[in-house]
Structure formats: C-alpha cells, structure tokens
Write a structure and sequence with these properties.
Layout: E1 6-14, H1 21-38, E2 41-43, H2 48-54, E3 58-66, H3 69-72, H4 74-81, E4 88-90, E5 97-99, E6 112-114, E7 119-121, E8 136-138, E9 160-162, E10 184-186, E11 194-196, H5 201-204, E12 210-212, E13 217-220, E14 234-236, E15 241-244, E16 257-259, E17 264-265, H6 274-280, E18 294-296, E19 303-305, E20 319-321, E21 326-329, E22 343-345, E23 350-354, E24 367-369, E25 374-377, E26 391-393, E27 398-401, E28 415-417, E29 422-426, E30 438-440, E31 446-448, H7 450-464, H8 479-486, H9 498-509, H10 513-539, H11 550-564
Parallel strand pairs: 4-6, 5-7, 6-8, 8-9, 9-10, 10-12, 11-13, 12-14, 13-15, 14-16, 15-17, 16-18, 18-20, 19-21, 20-22, 21-23, 22-24, 23-25, 24-26, 25-27, 26-28, 27-29, 28-30, 29-31
Antiparallel strand pairs: 1-3, 1-4, 2-3
Length: 566
C-alpha cells in the first residue's frame, strides 16, 4: 500500500446492462474502462473488486484505497470518462483534491453525481449542465468557490440539488426557476449567496419539499408565493438578512420544520405574528397543519402578542422557539395543549402576567426557557407534573413567593436558574438542588442564604470531585457532612487527587534545597485546601442563620490565595 494513498469510504460507479447489440458493444467499453479504474485501487478489504469480476458493469469499493492519481491523472480520467454508460458516480466522504473535471459533463447517461465532503477546489464546471439525465447532484462540503452556474438550469430531470457549504458568492440564477422537477435544494452555509429570493420561487418550483438557505446573505422578504407551496415539508432560512412580514402559511399542510431565526423578520407591528394564527386555524377545507414538529422564530423583530392558535398544533413535538423578539402580552393558556413538546423557549421578550398553570400539562417538556421577560407571581405548582424537565430557566423576571418545595429531589433536573427575581423566604436545604449540576438564585434580595449556600456547595464539589447526587450520599450522609467528618486529620481521603498529583510532579523534578522548598509548598497547599473546605462547609450550613456571609467567604478565600502564592 502506498503511504500516500487516499482513503476512500465509498465509491460507487454504476451502469445497467444493455439490451441491444449496440448497447452490448458500449458495455464492453464500459467494462474495460471500469477494470482500468479498478487497477488504481490499492486495497479492498470488503472484496468488492471480486464482485466486479462477475458484474463488469458495477464497481463498488467500500473502505478501499486509491492511488494518488486516481482522481487527478490522465490515466484515471480516461478510466472514468470512457465508461459512457455510467449512471451513478459516488465519491463522497473521501480526500479528493483539485478541481472537478469538466469531462464529467460527457457522461451523458449519468443520473447521480455525489462528490460531497471532499477537498475539491475551483468552480463548479458549467459542463455539469450537459448531464441531461441527472436527477441528483451533491457537491456540498468542499472548498469550491465562484458562482452557481447558470447552466444548472438545463438539468430538466434534476430532483435533488445540494451545493451547500462551499463558499459560493452569487445570487440564485434565474435559470434555476426552470427546474420544475426539483424537490430538494440546499444552499446552506455558503455565506456568500446573496440577493433576494425570486418572487415566483414557489410557483415555478411547485414540487419543492425541502429548501435550505441557512447561513447566507439573502435579503428581502420571504416570497408570498410560499403560501401556495402545498408540498413543502421544510423551510430553513435562518442566519440571513430576511426582513418584512411572514406570509400566510395556512395551506402548508405538510410543513414539518420552519426555521427562520436570526434574521430581521418582523416590522414591530402588533400583527407581526399573525402568520402563526394561520398555522393553527382550522379552515373548513384545508384543516390545520398536522406535520409541523419544529418551529423556530428566534432573534427576529417580531412584535405583538403570541396568537393562541399556534398552540393547537399538537404535532409540535421537538421544539417551539420564539426567543429574542419583542413579543408582548401574556403566554396564552393554550400552551398546555402542547403535550408532546420537548422544548419551549420564549425567553428574551416582553411577556408579562403570571406563568400560566397550564404549562404543567406539557408533560413531555425537557427544557423550559422563560428568562428575560416580565413574568410575575409565584412559580405555578402545576410544574410538579413536568417529570422529565432537565433545564428550567426563569431568571430575570418579576417572579415572587417562595421557591417551591416540589423542586426537591428532581432526578432529571440539570440546570435550575431562578436568578434576579423577587423570591423570598429561605432557600431550602441542599436536597432541593442535589440533582442539578448548576443551580442559581443570585439577585433575590429577600431570599435568605441563597447565594452563599450555592457557592459553598460549588466549593465542595470542586475540591472533592464529588457531587451531592453521587450514590454514596443519602438522607443520613450529604456532601457537607462527608467533608466535615474528614476535617482536619483525614483530608487526604476526601480531596480530589489532582492537586496532590501536581505536587508529586514537583517532587520528582526538584533536588536538594529545591526539595525542601517543595515540601514546604506542599504543606502550605494542604493547609490552604483545609481552609477552603472549612469555607465550603460554613457557607453550606443547613441552618441559614449559621452560614458564613458571602463577604466573609470572599475575604477568607482572598487570604487563602495570598498565602498560597507566597
């Protein structure tokens, strides 16, 4: 095997047998060409080349190796391009380099060309437009540049066009509107594709099912013609410069995914979200959208209230995100109809009033993000029903009352953020937050012991390498007691070994007087670690009134730091 050979994950060069004498002669040429290409394979661990011996019209090599000239040399080009009756070329997920050969445009019967995920450079050759039988073109994830060739408009049978993540810097050519057979077009992450979407885009391409335009510089409004795109399953246009209002989507009964976040959509008017009403309405004939499971409208300029009709879409099961807009009013009680929803994000808006108790009916919720609004009142007791909840962020609101006891012992909870509200009373014992990897209650001035308690637990976690949820802890032994019993004489049994390992490393690299200094430093490190443990225990005392103040804790840790760097 050549050391410079290129690993091939998948190669498929496919041609059907002919049925006439003329085609039989063509197949003989095809056979010789493919066998010549076979000679360039230096390894075939799955025995695919043996299959080639029996079926001369099919070359299939999985996880093989090509010699370096397999794509670039005249010999390999002859091997490929003499196979005139090839129908499929699959060279995806390899390490092919240099430019796409223009000779590809001479394989007249080619139906599938997949060269995605390589290191190809240069521009897409205009000769690709000569492949009149082509129905799938995938050239995504390469180092290509330039513009989208207008000649692609000649591909009258094309159904799938994937030219994403290749740094194209052009507008969508008008000729592409001739491709009425297109069902999938993906131009995502080109970063340079710009201009406005053609107003008749969805009229001239009536069979579109999936259109991906994410991460480009496309501007202007979403064409009104989208309102009639009855076959559309997915519309992805996030991270662009789209603006204006979103047209009615009421007729898109097959729509499953709508991702239009991080743009400039919306006008600041109260009717910005009216198109959501059209999603949830039940027209006499069309019925409501039953397929939509992902809806993300984040980071736009949407204003006005959230239409309650949107929550009648029981199909929303993955996530509904409206964060970082200017939505006002209250969260409709109809939110409780989304019983299958996995994540709800309405953070960073101007929503007010109480959090509706009906949120507790969203029993599949794993993430609930409501931070940065003007919600008020207590945390609804109905949230006790959210057994699968992993993230709960209610920070930066005007919520009040006591922290509910039902948050105690939540096995699934990973993050709990109640910071910057008006909660009052005592922070419950550490059992409340035992199962959360991060719990925040900062900025609740009427809350007793909250900040310093969380800080103390964090210190103990950092220096023991243990969490309050570890199996060794139970009702009779928690993290604080575990540390307290070990101080001062048995500190070596509870400390995370990492600090000691670092000191042992120092011992191995120093001799003589340096060794004495190292021993002194180790002693000082252990003394400082003991002091840190004392601070952690004092801050997380079960009795709020007996906890160390946050000011004293900071002062003590500052003193420990100074001693450590002496």
């Amino acid at each position: 095997m050549l050391s410079s050979s290129l690993r091939i994950n998948y190669i498929l060069l496919f041609s059907l047998f002919g049925h006439t004498a003329c085609l039989m002669r063509g197949n003989e040429t095809n056979k010789l060409a493919l066998l010549q290409f076979k000679s360039l394979i230096s390894e075939d661990p799955f025995g695919a080349l043996e299959f080639l011996e029996r079926h001369h019209s099919l070359l299939r090599v999985a996880c093989g190796h090509l010699q370096p000239e397999a794509w670039e040399s005249h010999r390999s080009r002859s091997a490929i391009f003499q196979a005139r009756s090839l129908k499929v070329i699959q060279l995806a997920h390899n390490h092919l380099v240099r430019e796409i050969p223009s000779e590809l445009g001479t394989i007249a019967k080619l139906e599938v060309l997949s060269i995605r995920n390589n290191y190809l450079t240069g521009e897409i050759p205009s000769s690709i437009g000569n492949l009149s039988s082509l129905h799938t073109l995938s050239a995504a994830i390469n180092h290509l540049h330039g513009s989208i060739p207008g000649s692609l408009g000649q591909l009258k049978k094309i159904r799938v066009l994937e030219i994403a993540a290749i740094n194209l810097s052009s507008t969508i050519p008008p000729s592409m509107l001739n491709l009425s057979t297109l069902t999938v077009i993906t131009l995502t992450s080109n970063h340079g594709t710009h201009g406005r979407l053609p107003t008749d885009l969805f009229t001239t391409l009536p069979n579109l099912q999936d259109i991906g335009l994410d991460a480009n510089l496309i501007s202007g409004s979403i064409p009104v013609s989208i309102s009639n795109a009855s076959n559309l399953l997915r519309f992805r246009a996030a991270w662009n410069k789209l603006s204006g209002t979103v047209p009615s989507l009421a007729k898109l009964s097959k729509l499953r995914s709508l991702l239009i976040f991080k743009s400039y959509l919306g006008t600041g008017a109260d009717n910005d979200l009216d198109f959501l009403s059209s999603l949830g309405e039940i027209p006499p004939i069309l019925g409501k959208l039953q397929a939509l499971n992902v809806l993300s409208l984040c980071a736009n300029n949407f204003s006005g209230p959230i239409p309650p009709e949107i929550f009648y879409l029981s199909s929303l099961s993955i996530f509904f995100a409206l964060s970082r807009n200017s939505s006002v009013g209250f969260l409709p009680a109809e939110v409780g109809k989304l019983k299958n929803l996995g994540a709800l994000d309405v953070s960073e808006n101007m929503l007010s009033n109480d959090i509706p108790g009906t949120v507790g009916a969203c029993i599949s919720l794993e993430q609930l993000h409501m931070a940065g609004n003007n919600f008020q009142g207590p945390i609804p007791s109905t949230l006790i029903s959210l057994k699968s909840l992993q993230w709960l962020d209610l920070s930066r609101n005007n919520l009040s009352g006591e922290i509910p006891r039902f948050l105690e012992g939540r096995d699934m909870l990973q993050l709990l953020n109640l910071s910057y509200n008006n909660f009052e009373g005592m922070v419950p014992s550490d059992r409340v937050f035992n199962n959360a990897s991060a719990a925040f209650v900062t900025g609740n001035d009427k809350l007793c012991g909250g900040d310093v308690f969380s800080f103390g637990i964090l210190l103990l976690e950092l220096f023991t390498g243990k969490r309050p949820t570890d199996e060794m802890f139970n009702e009779s032994l928690n993290l604080q007691n575990f540390v307290k019993k070990a101080l001062p004489g048995q500190m070596g049994e509870i400390i995370d070994p990492m600090p000691l390992e670092e000191d042992e490393y120092i011992d191995l690299t120093m001799k003589g007087n340096d060794q004495d200094r190292t021993n002194n430093r180790k002693s000082r490190v252990k003394e400082c670690l003991a002091s840190v443990f004392h601070v952690g225990v004092a801050c997380s005392n079960e009795q709020p009134k007996e906890r160390m103040s946050i000011a004293d804790a900071v002062a003590e840790l500052s003193s420990i730091r100074n001693k450590l760097v002496e």
